Amino acid sequence: MPKRYKSYSELILNGLFKENPIFRLALSMCPAVGISTTLMNGFLLGIAVLFVQVASSFTVSVLKNFIHPKIRIPTYTLVIATWVTVIDLTLSAFFPTAYKAMGIFIRLIVTFSIILMRLEVFAAREPVLPSVVDGFGMGLGFMFGMMTLGFIRELLGAGQLFGHQVLPVKPLLFFILPVAGFFCVGFMMAVFNYVEYLFKKAREKRIKG
Amino acid sequence: MRDFVRIIIGLTIACVMSALIMGTVFMFTIKAKKHNQYMEFKEAMYGVLGYTHERPAPKSLKFHEVYRYILHEPNKNYMGYMIPTKDGKYCFVALTFDGKFLYKKKVNLSEEEARDDSVRDKALSKVLGPSIKFFYANKTIVATNNGKRVAYLLPRSFPGFKTTIKVLLALRPDYTIKGLEILEEEEDPGLGGEIKRKYFKNQFKGLTYDEVLKLKVIKKPLPEEYRKCLEEEEKFTKEEIEKIRAKYQDAHIYALTGATITSTCVTNGIKNIVKKFAYRIKVLDRIIKNYKINAAI
Asked: What is the Cα–Cα distance from A126 to A129, expressed in whole angstroms?
């Protein structure tokens, strides 16, 4: 099997831009649309997903030889659910203010397709350290996506950032509603595609010239 | 077949392992969690009474909880109150729904212990016996200062636009609204979620009992002067606030832009709470007086 990565920094950049979970892989669209109403929500959920992704990548990578291939998906789900419960309990006990802001969203992380997909595609086949780095990159990519969406929606919908009023008016009230989440995701996907197109063009030019 | 057994064993081990991890974390965090919840609630209680870090509450201010239960016997339903008595224990009083006295019993439970739901339920089932089924309805917290009633605090919930809204309402002894705090809501952020903002919830402050019963939601923009007064109360003097309130505060609530349904839900919910409570506390006071319960409230 050929090695699928050159360096750890490439793995992280891969998660952030090249295979960004929300804008390139189009996974976990549900939370991206539903929860990214404010910058703070996006940030907090991003942190939680980062933790769960890294922890489950590590666990699965360590246990990959013991997991029976026919029941790997239930086992992965179990691993994710365990880590989600751990972070849910810990947050509610020691960071009550953060927990208050996120509430039920934390428990939703169990269903995020991005985490399961990363376990199946990467952590189940690679050694421990690259798996952890890959999980970290993917988590960062998810956080980046959520925060971008949260930034656009909070600024345009409520005229606020992190709950502080920055614009004197609410420019487009409609951006707070779930529907606008789809527009934002679509817009960002277009931006990502366009940037990739520009890169491609530049590369072709370089090869020709 | 061999695969089958291996799968069963593998899954069982995985489940047991994860249960062990979750159980351990739970054991470590449950105490801190309960403490957090209580502290949060206590802060909300002080906040709704108008006390802050700069203006702390007097030491003589005490909170006494009165719990209301619904009881089922095989062929009749009635309700009961757990009332704190002066010796620091509780007295259980059973009433019919129209306020007739049935019986009273002593519950050997201190106020501190009674705050834990499961402890309270256990003690109560011991007192009432196994044939009576009971369900917790709600609680009223009576704030007393040197033995005198200062306020009633009502943690209640009612349906909002999307899910249930939990509020903490403070009433003066004459049922004038002293303050309103939204504890939990899941309305649309930026629209219905604005009920948490001061400019909405402070509109209820100072409404008298008669005004609350007539309360209506009007779809008019909130006057700028009134909004400023509601948002930053501490910047105004008492006379100024009274003047502005007299000018704008009538038996109506200014609806939130884009969230008329939520505003109506909150207004109707508050109306219901105040109406029911005023009736119930009158009945309770009569019972306490007539049947010589040595109540701490």
From this structure: 8
B51 SS3 class: coil
Cα B230 from Cα B244, distance rounded (Å): 10
- Looking at the DSSP bridge assignments, the partners of residue B134 are B71
Number of H helices, E strands in chain B: 8, 10
Mean residue pLDDT across chain A: 84
Interface of B with A in 32-51 (CB under 8 A): 32-33, 36, 40
Cβ within 8 Å, pair A176-B190: yes
Q: 């509601």: which residue's tokens?
A: B230
CA B200 – CA B253 distance, rounded (Å): 8
The conformational region for residue B205 under phi > 0 = left, psi -120 to 50 = alpha, else beta, is beta
Provide the ipTM.
Answer: 0.73
Domain-by-domain residue ranges, chain B? 1-48, 58-297
Q: Is the pLDDT of residue A208 over 60?
A: yes
How many Cβ atoms from other residues are within 10 Å of residue B207's Cβ? 24
> How far is the C-alpha of A99 from the C-alpha of A27, rounded, in Å?
25
Give the HSE-up count for residue B171: Cα atoms under 13 Å, Cβ half-sphere.
Answer: 24
Chain B residues with CB-CB distance to A93 below 8 A: 28-30, 32-33, 36
The pLDDT tens digits of the residues spanning B9-30 come to: 888 988 999 999 999 999 999 8
Measured CA to CA, the distance from residue B60 to residue A192 in angstroms comes to: 63
List all residues 6 or more positions away from B234 whose beta carbon is below 8 Å from its beta carbon: none
Residue A62 forms contact with B (CB below 8 Å): no
Q: Which residues of chain B carry a pLDDT beneath 70? A: none
C-alpha pair distances (Å), A113 with each of A64, A137, B188: 19, 16, 25
Contacts of residue B33 in chain A, CB cutoff 8 Å?
89, 92-93
Q: What is the DSSP string of A33-55?
A: HHTTTSHHHHHHHHHHHHHHHHH
Chain B residues within an 8 Å CB radius of A68 = 3, 6-7, 10
Residue that is written with structure tokens 């062990």 in the block: B20
Q: What CA–CA distance (Å, rounded) separates B110 from B132?
A: 23
CB within 8 Å: A67 and B10: yes
- Residue A3 in any domain: the answer is no
Q: Do the domain assignments include residue A36?
A: yes
What 3-state class would DSSP assign to B74?
Answer: coil
Q: How many domains does one find in chain A? A: 1
For residue A39, the enclosing domain spans 9-208
| pLDDT at A3 (0 to 100) | 62
Residue range A181-202: average pLDDT? 89
In a domain, A119, yes or no: yes
Does residue A179 sit within a domain? yes
